[in-house]
Specification:
Length: 230
């Protein structure tokens, strides 16, 4: 499947720009960033610098780092064409991950040591999921839901409070289920787009993905607005 035709890839501009934006998977990255905001907004008192920090951390680690690694591990297929070499993708991923962890380590050392287990787990999943380590054992929907659904919510909450509450755990579980819906719709959508066998069903799944990502992002922005001005 040539992913340059995906619905979230700009239809304008030079190819290098279009692929660079496409590699960010902005609707899905936006969901994960919203999960971190949702977790942050559950805290009794908000440290706004930490809200910004967790959003930047996940944008770097997932939006850039994980997606660059995913493009590297494409099993001989180049779904984004030859705009970026594997060396460039590796460099981009490593720089993004290093920057993300530099920010995270600063906060963990000074304020939130409880974030260490989440940071270590997420670092493992970035590599094990996207590079399909251990025979792809961790490249499964359940691990996707945990790593990019539940843990971002908990990371946002923990960075605010250095604790985990039952409410935060329940919201994390709810966001994991929404992530599971996303990946369950995304896999057959990609297969249908690749085969071009059922354009109508592919369009239905695309609509589900658009509504799901848009709804989660709207929820995150709404909670942010509520805590700011509500």
């Amino acid at each position: 499947m040539d992913r340059r035709t995906e619905w979230f890839v700009p239809s304008f501009g030079p190819e290098r720009f279009r692929v660079a934006v496409g590699l960010l998977f902005l609707p899905y990255t936006g969901m994960v960033l919203s999960f971190t905001v949702i977790g942050s907004m559950l805290a009794p008192a908000i440290h706004w610098d930490r809200v910004a920090a967790i959003v930047v951390i996940y944008f770097l680690a997932l939006g850039i780092g994980a997606h660059a690694l995913d493009a590297v591990c494409s099993r001989g297929v180049r779904p984004w064409g030859l705009v970026f070499t594997r060396a460039q993708l590796w460099t981009l991923a490593l720089l993004a991950l290093a920057a993300a962890y530099a920010i995270g380590v600063w906060y963990m050392i000074l304020y939130t040591p409880l974030l260490w287990p989440i940071a270590i787990a997420e670092g493992f999943f970035v590599l094990a999921y996207n590079l399909e380590w251990f025979g792809g054992r961790f490249h499964r929907d359940s691990w996707f839901a945990l790593s990019w659904g539940a843990l971002p919510v908990l990371a946002g909450y923990v960075l605010q409070t250095n604790s985990i509450s039952p409410a935060a755990a329940l919201i994390a579980a709810a966001m994991a289920l929404l992530s599971l819906v996303e990946i369950k719709a995304s896999r057959p959508y990609k297969a249908l787009k690749r085969s071009m066998e059922d354009a109508t069903q592919a369009e239905r799944l695309e609509t589900i993905l658009k509504c799901l990502s848009g709804g989660v992002i709207a929820l995150g922005v709404g909670l942010l607005a509520f805590r700011l001005w509500g």
